Amino acid sequence: MNKISMALCAFPLSLSMNAQTAITSDVLSMLEKAQPTTAADRALRNVVSSMSISKVALDQQHAAAATDTYFSLETKNQGVTNQESSGRCWLFTGLNVLRHRAAQKIGAPGLMFSQMYGFFYDQLEKSNLFLQGIIDTRTLSLDDRTVDWLFQNPLSDGGTYTGVADLVSKYGLVPQEVMAETYAANHTDELNSHLKRKLREFGIQLREKAQQGASQKQLEAEKVEMLKTIYHMLTLAYGEPVKKFEWAPKDANGKIIGEARTFTPLEFYRYCCPDEDLNADYVMLMNDPSRDYNKVYEIEYDRHLYDGHNWLYLNLPIEDIKPLCIASIKDSLQMYFSCDVGKQLNRNNGLLDLKNYDYESIFGTKFGMNKKQRIQSHDSGSSHAMTLMAVDLDANGKPTKWKVENSWGASYGFAGHLIMTDEWFDEYMFRVVVNKKYLSDAQRQLLKQKPVRLPAWDPMFMEE
Hints:
- By secondary structure, this protein is an alpha+beta fold.
- It has one domain: Cysteine proteinases (Cathepsin B, Chain A), CATH 3.90.70.
- The protein is built from 18 helices and 14 strands.
- Strands 1, 4, 5, 6, 7, 8, 9, 10, 11, 12, 13 and 14 form a 12-stranded mixed sheet that branches. A two-stranded antiparallel ribbon has the order 2-3.
- Helix 7 packs antiparallel against helix 12 (216-238).
- The chain is globular, with a radius of gyration of 26 Å.
- The model is unreliable at 3-16 (pLDDT under 50).
């Protein structure tokens, strides 16, 4: 063995002797001796180990103070919805926003759109998106990152505003009373697990047929046959989508206040939302400090329909987004809004406030990551969509707090709503959809740039 070989062989030995790469007995002894041993520490250990940490960390004095529920600018509420045990907040929020606009235009305060109708087609379209994605990537290896991502994520019940816009534009809207919620829709996990398993099986079969020489045309014909099975599974759980129905406008108490008419879903959409293009007239704004501001981004496969739109957004500083939200609320135009709702949420009073919980005092350490670092490390991201409907402004016209209509039922939080401080908004707000008419000329020019294409596994793909 030459000297170089001897040196290389000796390197791992010397490294293990000199570096703390593992928890040795000496390291463990140091960790044990570093633990505090006062009576107060022992008492804290007893409390933390025996109950919810959030209850221990709750700032009782802050929680006891009455929540300020006054808002200087507030849009009218149409009634709180409940997505139950499902991930459909994006759909509930999108339809709640449309319901508010429609009620103003057609004078039907009792109108509620069917979430079930839109969700049926969402699941069918996502199934097609996955299977067509498998066909499109058939020449790539199974361990290619895109192919692997597709098989990891064949279907979900989450989504974004883009899905709402594309689904409604293609399939229309129906009132909730003509296609009501089902148990399976309110508890999506079980059916989704079976749908995903079947889609993965179909995906493997398509790849095998491609390897055996099947053409793209043959694979797509096979895909349609596969979708028949998916469609059947969906009808068992959610029912057949309605094709035509009779509807009459009602007031908030359910009393008929107008003449009944017959509609198709697309006719009803155009009746409720005339002269409005849900894609062309609106833009999603993002506050993501981990990316360059004033740029447009697009995420691959972050869409609901194969023939739909990838999720596209304009990334702006938070101080540029707030005036646009305020302008929309002043015009009584509610907005699709999403955030990291689980951070510092007091579920009892519905308050989102950075002062709600003092985890740093409990654990004796500072949680010091900023918003950019939390995004980069997957510690924070958009997790839930709600309807932004109110803001409270101080004497200088600056926001102090915001209010959203939630979809967790009327008994949750503040009468079905959540209130967030402006400081919380800065840290955990991510997405909001506004009408382009509120943008400045410079911001409209930004929309003309070629989007930066991000991969499907980008941290911002997180669905609401």
